[in-house]
TrEMBL record:
<feature type="domain" description="Lipid/polyisoprenoid-binding YceI-like">
    <location>
        <begin position="29"/>
        <end position="199"/>
    </location>
</feature>
<dbReference type="Pfam" id="PF04264">
    <property type="entry name" value="YceI"/>
</dbReference>
<feature type="signal peptide">
    <location>
        <begin position="1"/>
        <end position="20"/>
    </location>
</feature>
<dbReference type="InterPro" id="IPR036761">
    <property type="entry name" value="TTHA0802/YceI-like_sf"/>
</dbReference>
<dbReference type="InterPro" id="IPR007372">
    <property type="entry name" value="Lipid/polyisoprenoid-bd_YceI"/>
</dbReference>
<keyword id="KW-0732">Signal</keyword>
<protein>
    <submittedName>
        <fullName>YceI family protein</fullName>
    </submittedName>
</protein>
Length: 203
């Protein structure tokens, strides 16, 4: 079993069929499998938390020999879903997340993570992934730990990134920008958990 350094996230982070195209110099391009992959978000507030998912439009991982060169993933912000609420409460929260108060989905339908650095982490099979996350057209550097494995032609990558939403102009309910929120305050940091799968078909 080979261990490779990979990223998703995402964020940020979900999906299509997967193939790898090999070339003479040992390089290959893997396309993320959206059906088998998952991107899960968790947002917290004073009175609790909410969780949900975001789908991936497409993504690629570029590998040279046994080393990762770069990776990117494009997430469909229109697909934002909440998994801990039902009925009207669910629709209300999802609609609010898509609005200008949060992710302005109509004007910014995609979030993109581009990874260019993969450094060995403290644990076996762990890597520190470094790259740039773009949300609402705003880009910032992002680093997080991820585990990556290549086994029998299947690449799996799992990692969790913590993101300060206010850096991406998502300020609604933030104690940094609004006073007197009380128990209506929403914490600035939220999590994106990436569980990615890519299946290679050698050519």
């Amino acid at each position: 079993m080979k261990k490779l350094s990979l990223v998703l996230l995402s964020v940020l982070f979900l999906s299509v069929g997967v193939m790898a195209k090999g070339v003479d110099d040992g390089k290959a391009v893997y396309k993320v499998d959206p059906i088998k992959s998952k991107v899960i978000w968790t947002g917290k507030k004073v009175t609790g938390e909410h969780t949900g998912t975001v789908l991936v439009d497409n993504g690629e991982v570029h590998v040279s020999g046994e080393s990762l060169e770069l990776a990117n993933i494009k997430m469909d912000m229109n697909s934002i879903a909440c998994t801990d609420l039902s009925g009207d409460m669910n629709q209300k929260l999802v609609g609010h997340l898509k609005s200008d108060d949060f992710f302005s989905v109509e004007n910014h339908p995609q979030a993109v993570f581009e990874a260019t650095g993969f450094k060995a982490g403290a644990a076996d099979g762990e890597y520190i992934v470094t790259g740039k996350l773009t949300i609402k057209g705003i880009t910032h550097e992002l680093s997080f730990p991820a585990t990556v494995e290549v086994n029998d032609g299947t690449v799996t990558a799992n990692g969790t990134a913590e993101i300060d939403r206010t850096k991406y102009d998502v300020k609604y309910g933030s104690g940094k920008f609004f006073s007197g929120l009380g128990d209506k305050m929403i914490y600035d940091d939220f999590e994106i958990e990436f569980n990615l799968v890519a299946t290679a078909e050698a050519i």
